[in-house]
Amino acid sequence: MDIDPRTGLPTEQGLFEEIAKGQQQITISTVARRYGKLTTLVTGFDKNINLKDIAKALKEKLACGGTVKNDAIELQGNHLKQVKPVLVKMGFSEASISD
Fold first, then answer.
1. N or C: which end of the chain has fewer CB within 10 A?
2. Is 5 a member of any domain?
């Protein structure tokens, strides 16, 4: 078992990312793009979180397209109400997610 020298926690179990998930201040908002299309932005993630994995899971659960740009996840369409329950299931704190 390997121990992370910075945190003193086991590295193979991914506990550092689980701890980091509880300390996020995530904001969910919508932005109007060209031709009146709505895009849902999920912002406020730390550098310790793998945004590509979270974006992939959100796109699968919400059946939409999206990308990661400028430390934010952009989802095609209006998904304000659906994103929060998916993030809570992924292990993020419900109190740290604001709409």
1. N
2. no
Residue whose pair of structure tokens reads 């506990």 in the numeric block = 15
DSSP letter for each residue of 31-52: EE-GGG-EEEEEE---TTS-HH
Residues 6+ apart with CB under 8 A from 32: 38, 39
Q: How far apart are CA 41 and CA 79, in angstroms?
A: 9
Strand order in the sheet with 72-76: 66-69, 72-76, 38-43, 26-32, 97-98
Rounded to an integer, what distance in angstroms lies between the CA atom of residue 37 and that of residue 35? 6
CATH number at residue 75: 3.30.780.10
- Residue the block writes with tokens 């704190």: 93
- Segment 55-89, tens digit of pLDDT: 999 999 999 999 999 889 999 999 999 999 999 99
Could you tell me if residue 20 is inside a domain?
no
- Domain membership of residue 29 as a residue range: 25-98
| CA 40 – CA 47 distance, rounded (Å) | 20
